[in-house]
UniProtKB/TrEMBL annotation:
<dbReference type="GO" id="GO:0051607">
    <property type="term" value="P:defense response to virus"/>
</dbReference>
<protein>
    <recommendedName>
        <fullName>CRISPR-associated endonuclease Cas1</fullName>
        <ecNumber>3.1.-.-</ecNumber>
    </recommendedName>
</protein>
<dbReference type="GO" id="GO:0003677">
    <property type="term" value="F:DNA binding"/>
</dbReference>
<keyword id="KW-0479">Metal-binding</keyword>
<keyword id="KW-0238">DNA-binding</keyword>
<dbReference type="GO" id="GO:0004519">
    <property type="term" value="F:endonuclease activity"/>
</dbReference>
<keyword id="KW-0378">Hydrolase</keyword>
<comment type="similarity">
    <text>Belongs to the CRISPR-associated endonuclease Cas1 family.</text>
</comment>
<dbReference type="InterPro" id="IPR050646">
    <property type="entry name" value="Cas1"/>
</dbReference>
<dbReference type="GO" id="GO:0043571">
    <property type="term" value="P:maintenance of CRISPR repeat elements"/>
</dbReference>
<keyword id="KW-0540">Nuclease</keyword>
<dbReference type="Pfam" id="PF01867">
    <property type="entry name" value="Cas_Cas1"/>
</dbReference>
<dbReference type="InterPro" id="IPR002729">
    <property type="entry name" value="CRISPR-assoc_Cas1"/>
</dbReference>
<comment type="subunit">
    <text>Homodimer, forms a heterotetramer with a Cas2 homodimer.</text>
</comment>
<dbReference type="InterPro" id="IPR042211">
    <property type="entry name" value="CRISPR-assoc_Cas1_N"/>
</dbReference>
<feature type="binding site">
    <location>
        <position position="241"/>
    </location>
    <ligand>
        <name>Mn(2+)</name>
    </ligand>
</feature>
<keyword id="KW-0460">Magnesium</keyword>
C-alpha cells in the first residue's frame, strides 16, 4: 500500500521494521505493509518495535530520516542523512504572517465548535443556549475578519472557547461536577477525559508534524497570540485546535450522555478513572482520532507554510 503522505508512522509495540534497497516493510500482528522508498521522506517509530540496522542503512541511503518517539508521542531522537535538517520548514514558519495565520486557525476552531453546539441544541426540547449567547458567538465569528491587532484576536478566541466549554456543561448530568474547562488537577471526570483525549490527539499530530518537516515549537496562534503552556509546541496546537471538537469532545460528551461514566470513576484530590472506563474511552478515541484527517491537515498546514501562509485552512 502506497501512503498518501511522505512519511510512515509505526505506532504501539511489537512491529518488525525492515527494508530492502527499494521497499520499507512493516510487519505487525495482523498484516504486512510495504512502502516504496522512493515515495518516503521520513519514518517515525512510536513506542517499542524491532528495527533492523540494515533497514536504517537503506533508509539513510535513500535520504530518508528516522525519528523516534515514546508511546505518548514525545520525541526521543532522530537519525538523519548527513546534512539533513530535522525541520526543513523552520525558517518558513518563522516568517509566517502571524495575523492571517492565527485568524485561519481561530476561524476553523470557532466554526467546528459552533457546528457541534448547534447539533447538540437541535436535539433538545429545553434549549441549550441562554438568552443572547448564540448571538454573541455568531457576532464574534463574523467579527474575526475585521480585527486588526493580535490581542483582539486573542480576546475573541478566549471568549468563544470559554463560552463553548460552559455551554457543553449543560449537556451532561450535574452530578459529574463539570462546569467549565479547568486546569489540573481535575476533580471531575469530564475535564479528566478531555485532558486524556487531547493528549492522545496532541501526540498523533506531533508525530505527523515531525514527519512533514515542521518545527513543532513554532506556531501562529499558539506561542504568538496565546501561550502554549508547559511542554507544548505551538505548531502542533495550531493544527490541533480545529480537530479537538470532532475527535475528542464528541467522544467525551457522547459517553457522558450515554451514561457510560457513572460508577466508573473516583474523586478525592483529583478524579481517577477506572480501568474499565479508560479501556472503553481509549477504544472510542482510536476510532475518532482519524490519522488520515490528521495527515491531511498537517500536509495543508505544511503547504501553507511553504507558500508563505497563503491558503491556510482546515
Amino acid at each position: 500500500m502506497i501512503p498518501d503522505v511522505s512519511w510512515v508512522t509505526v505506532w504501539g509495540y511489537g512491529s518488525d521494521i525492515r527494508a530492502t534497497q527499494k521497499m520499507l516493510i512493516v510487519r505487525d500482528k495482523s498484516a504486512k505493509t510495504a512502502y516504496p522508498l522512493s515515495s518516503l521522506q521520513h519514518l517515525l517509530v512510536v513506542g517499542g518495535h524491532t528495527l533492523e540496522t540494515a533497514a536504517i542503512s537503506h533508509l539513510i541511503a535513500n535520504n530518508i530520516s528516522v525519528s523516534f518517539f515514546d508511546i505518548h508521542g514525545e520525541p526521543v531522537g532522530s537519525i538523519r542523512p548527513f546534512g539533513g535538517d530535522a525541520c526543513p520548514l523552520r525558517s518558513a514558519q518563522k516568517n509566517l504572517p502571524i495575523h492571517s495565520s492565527a485568524m485561519s486557525v481561530i476561524t476553523s476552531a470557532v466554526k467546528s465548535r459552533m457546528m457541534y453546539l448547534n447539533e447538540l441544541a437541535s436535539g433538545r426540547d429545553d434549549g441549550l443556549f441562554y438568552k443572547g449567547e448564540l448571538e454573541i458567538l455568531s457576532d464574534a465569528s463574523r467579527e474575526l475578519e475585521f480585527l486588526i491587532t493580535l490581542p483582539e484576536l486573542g480576546r475573541i478566541f478566549t471568549l468563544t472557547r470559554n463560552m463553548y466549554y460552559e455551554i457543553l456543561s449543560r449537556t451532561v448530568a450535574p452530578e459529574f461536577g463539570y462546569h467549565r474547562r479547568e486546569k489540573p488537577p481535575y476533580v471531575d471526570p469530564i475535564n479528566a477525559m478531555f485532558a486524556h483525549g487531547y493528549a492522545v490527539l496532541y501526540a498523533s499530530i506531533s508525530v505527523a508534524a515531525a514527519g512533514a518537516g515542521l518545527d513543532p515549537e513554532i506556531g501562529a496562534l499558539y506561542g504568538s497570540v496565546v501561550p502554549t503552556g508547559k511542554n507544548r509546541g505551538g505548531c502542533v496546537l495550531d493544527i490541533m485546535e480545529p480537530l479537538m471538537t470532532p475527535m475528542v469532545d464528541r467522544v467525551v460528551v457522547g459517553m457522558a450522555t450515554e451514561d457510560r461514566l457513572s460508577h466508573r470513576y473516583e474523586v478525592s484530590s483529583r478524579c481517577i478513572m477506572s480501568e474499565r472506563l479508560m479501556k472503553e474511552f481509549n477504544l472510542r478515541l482510536a476510532e475518532s482520532v482519524d490519522s488520515a484527517v490528521i495527515n491531511r491537515n498537517v500536509r495543508m498546514y505544511a503547504d501553507a507554510v511553504s507558500n508563505g501562509g497563503s491558503g491556510m485552512s482546515f
